[in-house]
Amino acid sequence: MVLSVSERTFTQEVLESPIPVLVNFEAPWCGLCRIIHPLLLQFQAQCGDEIKLVGVNADQNFKLSTTYRLKSLPTLLLIEKGIVRQRLEGFRSRDDLRLALEEIKLIYMSSNKTYSIAKTADLECQSV
Fold first, then answer.
1. CA 118 to mean position of chain CA atoms
2. Active-site residue among 2, 27, 30, 35?
3. Calpha distance 51→49 (Å, rounded)
4. Residues 6+ away with beta carbon under 8 Å from 76
5. Whole-model pTM above 0.90?
6. Is 47 a catalytic residue?
């Protein structure tokens, strides 16, 4: 189950989280949001306590939607220590999303838990 976050709980659950958070901005009317949901649940199960997955209803949290300049739904943001490290939007297929999630797992699920500056810099430039 994905934790639902609102404007009221976003700071505590996402920005102040001790672990990286993958934020899924979605809406009930969004068909693609429903299609990718099983992939996100699988990602959550594989990551365990290493990466937190939360959902935000973009329609009900307009301030967050504006703050993060959402252009389309779904939009996924990987936020670590309050900083957006990766933005995933405009998926062409489920495989595009699957590959992006695999890349995130490889970077953040490393056994040594040391994040190099190069990896962080690389993430900021990539989008799917």
1. 20
2. 30
3. 6
4. 22, 23, 24, 25, 87, 88, 89, 100
5. no
6. no
